[in-house]
Design goal:
This protein is mostly helical. The chain has a domain of 73 residues. The protein is built from two helices and two strands, in the order E-E-H-H. It has a two-stranded antiparallel ribbon. Helix 1 packs across helix 2. The longest helix has 55 residues. The chain is rod-shaped, with a radius of gyration of 35 Å.
Length: 113
């Protein structure tokens, strides 16, 4: 900042990536923070710094991968459930056939030889 003759001038580089002080050392903004920032304060693409756009894109890519994984797991569980239901139906049909064939055939007494 420069002050002189009752005029205050400042030059800011608001497109520069911030580095936050942290007890563990300097820290860059997390991808989630970039995504949240753009969600809370939307901007025209020309006013989004590259580092922020890259962080938000990284977060969106991660979320898309997690969504695909959840969908794949749901499909696997549904397939397994359908397979178990089919197996139970087959066992019920076999038990019903066994009951019908057992009732239709008269029992024979063992012959003495």
């Amino acid at each position: 900042m420069v002050a002189g003759e009752w005029v205050l001038r400042s030059e800011l580089d608001w497109m520069r990536e911030p580095v936050f002080d942290n007890p563990d050392g300097p820290k860059r903004p997390a991808p989630h923070s970039c995504y949240v920032e753009l969600g809370l304060y939307p901007r025209d693409p020309e006013f989004i710094p590259e580092w922020m756009a890259a962080g938000a894109a990284q977060w969106e890519k991660r979320e898309a991968a997690l969504a695909r994984r959840r969908e794949r797991d749901r499909a696997r569980r549904a397939a397994k459930k359908a397979e178990q239901a089919e197996k139970a139906a087959q066992q019920a049909q076999q038990a019903q056939r066994a009951d019908q064939s057992g009732a239709a055939a008269p029992e024979q007494a063992p012959s003495a030889s």
